[in-house]
Amino acid sequence: MYSLPAEWYEQDGVMLTWPHQDTDMAPFLKQVYPIYLKISQVITKRQKLVLIVHNYILKTEVKNQLIRHNIDLKKVIFLVVPTNDIWIRDYGIITLINSQKKLKINNFIFNGWGNKYKSNLDNKINSYLVAQVINPEVKTEYISFVLEGGAIDSDGKGTLLTTKSCLLNSNRNPQFTQEKINKILLKKLGVKKIIYLEHGYLEGDDTDGHIDTLVRFAPNNTIVYVTCNDEKDSHYQDFQGLETELKDLKTEEAKSYNLIPLPWPKPKYNAQGNRLPATYANYLIINGAVLVPIYRDKSDETALIQVQKAYPNYQIIGIDCLPLIYQFGSLHCISMQLPKGLLK
Length: 344
Fold this sequence. Notes:
Blueprint: E1 11-17, H1 29-44, E2 48-53, H2 56-68, E3 76-80, H3 88-91, E4 94-97, E5 103-109, H4 112-115, H5 125-132, E6 139-146, E7 153-154, E8 159-163, H6 164-167, H7 178-189, E9 193-197, E10 215-218, E11 222-226, H8 236-248, E12 258-262, E13 284-286, E14 289-294, H9 300-310, E15 315-320, E16 335-339
Parallel strand pairs: 1-2, 2-3, 5-6, 8-9, 11-12, 14-15
Antiparallel strand pairs: 1-16, 4-5, 7-8, 10-11, 13-14
């Protein structure tokens, strides 16, 4: 039986989609490119990097930037395919593993977070990926169900964490009841239990409450989660409710989870005065390191210390992601890990 591994399972590489002029990130490209280059440097020191680029002109430009930043091109695999946007966490392949360490790919439907944004190109990327980059021994199943990678988190032991606000939203799979959605997730992701959280509304989040901005599983029955300690903040009451929910959760051994709270950065706003979804939970785990988004905030250092508690054997690396959140996402949102054995 195949099941969804935890994100700290050993990896072949990580996928990123390079930003370009035809994405919503266009006004911020000068600020965002250094983030992608920094992430690329860190990843290629430990594993492969799959870069999805919009066209061959962009491929040449990106190659030149990588060379200028001393990034080993032998560690980089380019996939040239048209893209709508950069959020590959949500349209990328979701990989399962069985007890013999054989892999299987699930290719779900991506509909632009409930048809809020164009997604026609991004929804096709996985077919190109499977044909050109993935180990041909790995089977792929195309599933007629809308699901984004940022909406789910696995402990690797059969428990799936998600939010009601996203998974049960009528803009995703309106034809299915919650009971039917549960059956699909249990079967297709090979999990035994689904935890639906009811709290965690985040201003500026246009995903309807992705779990990867709020709560993350970590090794040894640990949960890392966002807190808000400012009673005047609009998030305060709801995040108090989230913490209460988490304290009530039990592991498969019927024990409480080890809870590690993350600090709350000061509110960040765009030029239009809209609040941006800055949270430290949107981190990326790679082989031997955790890349944590930071936001030029006094809470950054505390966030890194807290994440280190959850991953004591990993190097914790802060990545300045303030420019990313101007398009309402962060570090985990722009990346997708590729478990060991997946690449050709």
